[in-house]
Amino acid sequence: MDSEMDKYLEDGLYEEEEGKVGGFNPLFLASILVVVTILIAAGLSFWATDISDKKSSLESGKCSGSISLYSGSFDGSKGEVTMVIDNKGASLGELKLYLEYENGEVGELRTPTVLVANSFQTVNFGNVAQSFKKGVLKTECSSIELKFIQESGILKSG
Predict the structure, then answer these.
(1) Confidence tier at 143 by pLDDT (50, 70, 90)
(2) Where are the domains of the chain?
(3) How many of the other CB atoms lie within 10 Å of CB of 40?
(4) Strand locations in the chain, DSSP E?
(5) Between residues 10 and 152, the one the model is more confident about
(6) Does residue 90 contact residue 61 with C-beta atoms inside 8 Å?
(7) What average pLDDT does range 37-61 have in this prediction?
(8) Which runs of consecutive H residues, i.e. helices, occur in 24-138?
(9) Would you tell me how many other CB atoms lie within 10 Å of the CB of residue 111?
(10) Is 36 left (phi over 0), alpha (psi -120 to 50) or beta?
(11) Which fold has domain 65-157?
(12) Is the pTM of this model over 0.70?
């Protein structure tokens, strides 16, 4: 039998069948890899943009609105500034009062008071020297502040 097989091979009657070898075209695989990479990058980009947009919209939402001085007074005997503030916006904290004195010095006072959203609220600051002439009330939002002057114990917007 071996001789028949040898003769078969020698005569060239036997041809090895070429079949498809399993796998994919490397160019096709490279193209798929590029497309998948671009899709992942686009997804991450949209995700990051969405996060930053949410953060800035929260900040702009919180810091939209205004505060105004409804009434205010300075009691020199107690060294106390009392302000009734009209808050037309979100709740605001981190209140700081900067006072400018006649000699040009500036003093800073803080209070833990939080201005409740859309309300009138009284805020008191103690330990104020007699000689202040004007001031600024600042909040955690740099765009929301209240400037005022003091004339004979009365605070006026200015």
Answers:
(1) confident
(2) 24-62, 65-157
(3) 10
(4) 65-75, 80-89, 95-101, 106-111, 119-125, 132-138, 145-151, 154-157
(5) 152
(6) yes
(7) 76
(8) 26-62
(9) 15
(10) alpha
(11) Immunoglobulin-like (2.60.40)
(12) no
